[in-house]
Structure formats: C-alpha cells, structure tokens
Amino acid sequence: MSTPTALISGVEQPGMVLGLSCAGCRPRLYIFDFIPETYRACADDGRLLADRTGLADEIVEEFLEGNREFYTSSILGIYRKLPHNLGFLSDITQRAYYLSNQQVTREEIRGVSKLLGEDEIYQENTRWLQAVKFTMFPFQGGDHAAEVKEVCACLEEAKSYAANPPYEQVIESYIQNSATGRTDAYRDSQELWVKDIKPAVETILGFVEPRRDPYGVRAEFEGLVGGLLIHQIR
C-alpha cells in the first residue's frame, strides 16, 4: 500500500480545517495516518503548525484538542458495566424478548399471555415491543420474514432427500411453521418425529426451549441435527 500524500491546506472553509489529498484512495482510511504525520511534521508544536498552515491559533487549538471531545463523549460508554444477568428489566439484567424503553411488569406480561392463550396463540415465537403504556395492542407477523423465506426454500429442497414419507411430512410441517408462524404446525412435526423409529439422521428445527425468557414462555430458534453411528453402539 502506498503512503498517502498529506497536504496541509491553508484555505479555511466552514467545517474544514485540514485537507487530505491522496490519489486513488479513500480519505477515511488514511485519516489515521494523516493526523499522526501532521503532529510529527510540526514536532507537536501548535505554533509551528499555525505558522506552516496560515490558520488562526483558535482553529489549530480546536484541531489539537479535538481528541479530548471524542474521549469524553465515549469514555462512559466504554467503561459502563453491561447487564450481566438474564431477567426482567433492571440495571443488572438484559432480555431480548421484551423490547421496551419502559419497565415491563410481570403483571403486564401475565395479562398479555392470558389474552393470547384465550385466542390459542402460542408465544414461543413472539417478541414484545412496547413504546408506551397501552390498553390494547396489535399482533403483527412477519418478523425476520426475509431470513425465514430462505429457510423455507432450503427446507423445500431438503424434502427430496427425506429417508421416508413420514419424515417428508416432518419437513413439510417445519415449512408450514416457518412460513405462517403457526406453532401448532411445529407440534404436528413433533408428533410425526417420535413415530420415526431408529432414524439414521434426525433433526429438530424451531422455537424449542424457553430457557432465556424470564417469564418462561418465549423460546429461541434452534436447529439440531443428530446422526446415528452404528459401529459405536453395537
């Protein structure tokens, strides 16, 4: 990589103090070389930098002190202690199922869970997005639709490699579960799965375990593949 040619410009323009000229390069990548070279060229002497560039002392001082503004604006974020436990919203916990800028109470979660249960809507593949306190809420599908579309295309292709008709039905249930969000389709796949006795290869695909949800109902998407090694179990 060639060393960029750094030119200290004496032309004062709004929002621009120093200019960087580098033939065929992106200034963003070379600014990290340009700034240290500028310091070295002037021996870290602000007055010498002002003399060589013809810039006002105030502008040179802003350039030299600019790193302090960056430091003070980023230091708190760098050293802030991140939440280290899973759980309901607090200073020491984090959770990805309840996306809210307000405290989500257990009573609210319990009430919504009861309401969804009355409509036979399973919650394993749902997330909670709350911007304000509410008395009613919409139920919206299509989360991660682009990724799910690719999953369904791969599963459709995998059907031609199924070892037997029941397992082809398992894959079809996976597709229905992914395409529609209906978790009863996933339950259908599990009923078919347990009937496939001693398979050489078996899979589980879907929202399976609610381990990370503090309320214990919402699950993470998982894909597991198991293979039977006959020579090791004889």
TrEMBL record:
Alphabetical list of InterPro entries matching this protein: Peptidase_M49 (IPR039461)
UniProt keyword annotations, A-Z: Hydrolase, Metal-binding
Cellular component terms (Gene Ontology): cytoplasm
GO terms for MF: dipeptidyl-peptidase activity; metal ion binding
Xref: Gene3D superfamilies: 3.30.540.30
Domain of life: Eukaryota
UniProt name for this protein: Uncharacterized protein
Organism: Paracoccidioides lutzii (strain ATCC MYA-826 / Pb01) (Paracoccidioides brasiliensis)
Taxonomic classification: Eukaryota, Fungi, Dikarya, Ascomycota, Pezizomycotina
